[in-house]
């Protein structure tokens, strides 16, 4: 499949060569495909589904770090979203299913890639895996997302420095500040990623209220959104 990428950022085009993990609706691995092909609506409309993760980083005050995606991003450029969202890749260390080790490894890798958080500052067992959501969302006529998304919480004070090609802005928010952000986003001209919107509307506040004692009883569930 030939796609003209000449108008897009060179580094973001390079990243489209990465190999994502294809799964079925139960999150069973069925193959692999390029990040580019996984995000084309032409393929998504035929059912192509890949594995992803969403990290929610909280500081010791209980505030959540949000990021605004860089304008260079090919999908959902300029949108506000959770701390870090990406994909485990189809390679040995990120395919490990036991205790979600592959997804955790990928999450730590991308926290460094997007926010400059050093891997040695986060151990894999510090992530709390809560559940998975299965959703589909177009970005525009050509690009979109169709993912089984692992939800990972992490509460830790860490130094970070946003990588400009990935993240153009960040903010820390309390639950009330996030509610206000979501309620006023349209009038303020703020764009919110669809997966973050789904998580906020359906899950986040009940989890946030109990950060010190998170409910992990839905780890085997894939929520169809």
Kindly list the characteristics that best describe this protein.
five-stranded mixed β-sheet; 28% strand; 225 residues; three-stranded antiparallel β-sheet; alpha+beta
Average residue-wise pLDDT: 96
Q: Give the CA-based shape.
A: globular
Q: How large is the share of residues in beta strands?
A: 25-35%
Low-pLDDT runs? none
- Numbering strands along the chain, what is their spatial order in the largest sheet? 6-3-8-7-10
Helix content: 25-40%
Could you walk me through the main structural features you see in this protein, from its secondary elements to its overall organization?
With 225 residues, this protein is α+β, with helices and mostly antiparallel strands. Helices cover 26% and strands 28% of the residues. It has helices at residues 10-15, 35-38, 41-44, 101-115, 175-188, 194-208, and strands at 19-23, 29-34, 50-58, 64-69, 80-81, 84-86, 128-138, 144-155, 167-173, 222-224. Strands 6-3-8-7-10 form a five-stranded mixed β-sheet, with helices on both faces. Strands 5-4-9 form a three-stranded antiparallel β-sheet. Strands 1-2 form a two-stranded antiparallel sheet. The longest helix has 15 residues, at 101-115. The chain is globular, with a radius of gyration of 17 Å. The two termini are 29 Å apart. The mean pLDDT is 96.
């Amino acid at each position: 499949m030939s796609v003209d990428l000449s108008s897009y950022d060179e580094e973001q085009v390079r990243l489209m060569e990465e190999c994502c993990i294809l799964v079925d609706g139960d999150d069973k691995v069925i193959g692999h495909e390029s990040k580019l092909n996984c995000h084309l609506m032409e393929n998504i409309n035929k059912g192509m589904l890949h594995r992803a993760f969403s990290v929610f980083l909280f500081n010791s005050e209980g505030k959540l770090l949000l990021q605004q995606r860089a304008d260079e991003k090919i999908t959902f450029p300029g949108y506000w979203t959770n701390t870090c969202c990406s994909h485990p890749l189809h390679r040995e260390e990120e395919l490990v299913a036991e205790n979600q080790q592959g997804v955790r490894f990928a999450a730590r890798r991308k926290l460094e890639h997007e926010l400059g958080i050093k891997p040695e500052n986060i151990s894999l067992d510090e992530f709390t895996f809560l559940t998975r959501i299965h959703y589909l969302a177009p970005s525009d006529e050509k690009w979109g997302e169709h993912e089984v998304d692992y939800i990972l919480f992490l509460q830790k004070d860490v130094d970070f420095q946003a990588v400009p090609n990935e993240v153009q802005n960040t903010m820390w928010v309390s639950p009330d500040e996030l509610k206000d952000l979501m309620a006023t986003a349209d009038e303020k001209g703020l764009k919110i990623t669809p997966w973050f919107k789904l998580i906020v509307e359906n899950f986040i506040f009940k989890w946030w209220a109990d950060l010190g004692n998170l409910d992990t009883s839905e780890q085997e569930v894939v929520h169809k959104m």
